[in-house]
């Protein structure tokens, strides 16, 4: 029986971020499951369109599933690249996959990395490993957030970090979601923090990192933190560049009986 793992992420336009983050995470999965064929899909219509303009084709989730059917795969496991089980996951994965459930012998949707409150422990352990802090330094991590459906995953992770005494402060880019910049700033000021490491809580680098988090514009997180009097060093790496983070996808897949 032909078996495949389909790594379905939002996607990224930047070629280096694609290779170093998304492709690297997919390769970690492929190495852990050599008996499966590894394929990818991007759920963002905008990103796929921009890539097509550059002559780069990446399947949508529908295209990838249709291709797997045409190629005779009977068992398919979808591993979402998302950190949280938000609106994108529900609309671009769960709803898209539903019509295909009866077309394969077995079609499994694995979990986003922080779907459940207990998942915060896994993520926190990885963050503590990949972000060694200098003496007196606090970590500011910026995730994506959602414009329509608030997800408590970031707050759950923050609570786990606070309980463990790890000096991280977590916010989101989306201006209509929380924890926003003002909430993070208040935490930093209440603590009396002065030295910061600013980094993305995102699978891949690209526009959000280069513009919203560490961009030259006045409203980037970097410039606003500096304007508030903090000394800030920046990491531009998406989490997908770190093997310890990549292995979280393998851990999610290990929850299933293949």
Automatic annotation (TrEMBL):
Keywords: Cobalt, Metal-binding. This is Sirohydrochlorin cobaltochelatase. SUPFAM superfamilies: Chelatase (SSF53800). It holds the Pfam family CbiK. One of its GO terms (molecular function) is metal ion binding. It comes from Selenomonas ruminantium. Co(2+) binds at residues 144, 174, 208. The active site is at residue 144. InterPro entries: Anaerobic_Co-chelatase. GO terms for biological process: anaerobic cobalamin biosynthetic process.
């Amino acid at each position: 029986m032909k078996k495949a793992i389909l790594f379905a992420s939002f996607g990224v336009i930047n070629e280096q971020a694609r290779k170093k983050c998304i492709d690297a995470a997919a390769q970690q999965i492929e190495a852990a499951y050599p008996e499966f064929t590894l394929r990818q899909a991007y759920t963002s219509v905008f990103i796929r369109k921009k890539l097509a303009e550059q002559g780069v084709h990446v399947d949508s989730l529908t295209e990838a599933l249709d291709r797997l059917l045409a190629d005779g795969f009977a068992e398919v496991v979808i591993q979402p690249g998302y950190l949280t089980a938000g609106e994108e996951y529900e609309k671009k994965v769960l709803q898209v996959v539903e019509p295909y459930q009866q077309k394969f012998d077995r079609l499994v949707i694995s979990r986003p990395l922080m779907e459940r409150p207990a998942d915060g422990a896994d993520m926190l352990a990885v963050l503590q490993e990949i972000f060694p802090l200098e003496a007196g330094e606090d970590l500011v991590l910026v995730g994506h957030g959602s414009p329509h459906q608030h997800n408590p995953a970031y707050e759950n992770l923050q609570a786990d970090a606070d309980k463990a005494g790890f000096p991280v402060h977590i916010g989101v880019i989306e201006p209509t979601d929380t924890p926003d910049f003002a909430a993070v700033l208040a935490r930093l000021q209440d603590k009396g923090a002065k030295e910061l490491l600013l980094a993305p809580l995102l699978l891949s680098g690209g526009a959000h990192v280069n513009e919203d988090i560490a961009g030259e514009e006045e409203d980037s997180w970097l410039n606003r933190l500096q304007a508030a009097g903090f000394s800030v060093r920046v990491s531009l790496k998406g989490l997908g560049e770190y093997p310890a983070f990549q292995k979280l996808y393998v851990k999610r897949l290990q929850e299933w009986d293949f």
